[in-house]
Amino acid sequence: MKPNPTKWAAVLCATAAPVFGASCESLASLALPDTKVTLAQVVPRGGFSPQGGGQSGGKAGVANPYQSLPEFCRVAATLTPSSDSDIKVEVWLPAGWNRKFQAVGNGGWAGTISYSAMAEAIKLGYATASTDTGHSSVGGAFVLGHPEKLVDFGWRSEHEMTVKGKAIVQAFYGSAPRRSYWNGCSTGGRQGLKEAQKFPDDFDGIIAGAPANRTALGMWIAAAVLKDPTAYIPPAKYGLIHKAALDACDAVDGVKDGLIEDPTVCKFDPKVLLCKGADGGDCLTAPQVEAARKIYSPGKNPRTGMELFPSLARGSELGWGALGGGPEPYNNTLDQYRYVVFQDAKWDWRTFNFDADIARSEKPEYVVMNATDPNLRPFFAHDGKLLIYHGWSDPNVSPFNTIKYFKSVQDTLGGAGKTARNIRLFMEPGMGHCSGGEGPNVFDKIGTLDRWVEEGKAPESITASHISEGKVDRTRPLCPYPLVAKYKGSGSVDEAANFVCKP
After folding, report:
1. pLDDT digits (tens, 9 = 90+) for 159-175
2. Dihedrals φ, ψ of 410, to 5°?
3. Is 499 within 8 Å of 487 (Cβ atoms)?
């Protein structure tokens, strides 16, 4: 696609973009280090559909979710930075380019291109890129006997995709992107932090949602509710516990609105649900009470009592099935120990030791993907902006772990006053893992970051929405941590205008 001059005249005038450097088809012969371009073709408006259905598409009887996409140039490539690398990437180049680049992150153990996230990016005019993180497997078995593939998954695929993606943008449009952003949640949030820490010059701004740094949280919860059948909490009781938590803590912030605004001040003890006699279904047995307490409590070394990692917040109960539903531990956690730490597909999780095995699992070669380095000075040196967000009701990744990292950055770089220009954390009451939940959980992430980068003014609050049946039924300001949204005392509790961010 050498863009039609008439069609592109308005775009060129509005953006002052330089003359285009190449046709779409000519990118098939683009020579880049350790790169083989395997596809370069124009995708007409509404013409994209992932092969075999792909991510979020191709289901029988369901309309193509990509039918509203504009025309774009689709480039696919295989990257081989090591002898054992097989990294697939795609770069999409929209007809109406805004002169900016947005790389999008992944989830879980990846293995797929994030097509749906790429689609959202090009709708806004961004050139965008995604990677399968170096494999096409489901789960973590791909790393067994392949340490280079673990490195590809951990950080190399994202960086290589970014470097090659920008080069493809340069070749096609004839100029480099004016701004470059990362946008990801869960694994994508962890990838974003890794980019800021390891490759600080890759991006001008980074969105890191619910960064999924690997801890033994899944093993901790499995030990609490799965090893002893009497301690198992059936999903039918999650609602019971959640209601009790809301009854105890909803109004602590001064307004009863069905949300726990700040779980750090919630003192709910599941002991209030202890069965008085035989279990009638509307109570918890003594072993279940202790299991619930452990889900709320940080993991501890049984020998020393030292805190090892944070756990889940009060308010997360409706999602406890993710880590505690059984019959085995959360797959992302289980595969980390099975294939990375112990390198044994038949490893028995019931033998896990929170003393010796934690020490083993924290060796550098086993946490190559984790992004916990608090020294973001190189990223901040070029005025990079880092927007972190996390749902308080996240049942997959501990929100306290994200707060812990945020505070470590502040402590390392001189305190909140010296870091607030470049890093902000927004905690979302009632939001689950990356999205969903009872609280407002939809907000303009990329727009917020873009304004922050372009205007240099950090967001003092962000309006988030809760949507039911396609309609907004509640809005609420998200506040930069540690501030929280406080009700002004009058007006609807479903309108953001009636709240203000306060300590």
Report:
1. 999 999 999 999 999 99
2. -60, -45
3. yes
Host H or E run for residue 404: helix 399-412
The candidate with the shortest Cα–Cα distance to 206, out of 226, 221, 191, is 191
Q: β-strand 87-94 against 462-468: which pairing, if any?
A: unpaired
Half-sphere exposure of 75 (CA within 13 A, CB side): 32
Tens digit of each residue's pLDDT (9 = 90 or more) over 322-369: 999 999 999 999 999 999 999 999 999 999 999 999 999 999 999 999
The predicted pLDDT at position 5 comes to 38
Q: Which of 262, 433, 450, 466 is catalytic?
A: 433
The CA distance from 220 to 323, in Å, is: 9
What secondary structure does DSSP assign to 201-257, as a single string? TS-SEEEEES-----SHHHHHHHHHTSSGGG---GGGHHHHHHHHHHHHGGGGS--S
- Other Cβ atoms less than 10 A from the Cβ of 253: the count is 20
* pLDDT band at 57; cut points 50, 70, 90: very low
User: Residue ranges of the domains in the chain?
Assistant: 1-50+63-177, 217-366
Q: Distance between CA atoms of 14 and 29, rounded to whole angstroms?
A: 30
| Other residues' Cβ atoms within 10 Å of the Cβ of residue 242 | 20
**Residue 499: how many other CB atoms lie within 10 Å:** 24
Q: Is 130 labeled as catalytic in the residue annotation?
A: no
List the structure tokens of 263. 């779980």
Answer whether residue 10 shows pLDDT above 90: no
Q: What percent of the chain shows pLDDT beyond 90?
A: 91
Write the pLDDT tens digit of every residue in 134-164. 999 999 999 999 999 999 999 999 999 999 9
Lookup result for tokens 């340490």:
147
Q: Among the options 202, 204, 253, 394, which is catalytic?
A: 394
Contact 164, 32 (CB under 8 A): yes
Looking at 157, 186, 311, 316, which residue is catalytic? Answer: 186
Closest CA to 354 of 401, 307, 302, 312: 302
pLDDT band at 279 (very low <50, low <70, confident <90, very high): low
- pTM of the shown model: 0.94
User: Taking Cα atoms as reference points, which of 132, 250, 244, 107 lies closest to residue 185?
Assistant: 107
Q: Mean pLDDT across the stretch 375-398?
A: 98
Question: Which string of b and e fits 311-327 if b means at least 16 CB within 10 Å?
Answer: bbbbbbbbbbebbbbee
The yes-or-no answer on residue 394 being catalytic is yes
The total number of residues written for the chain in this structure: 503
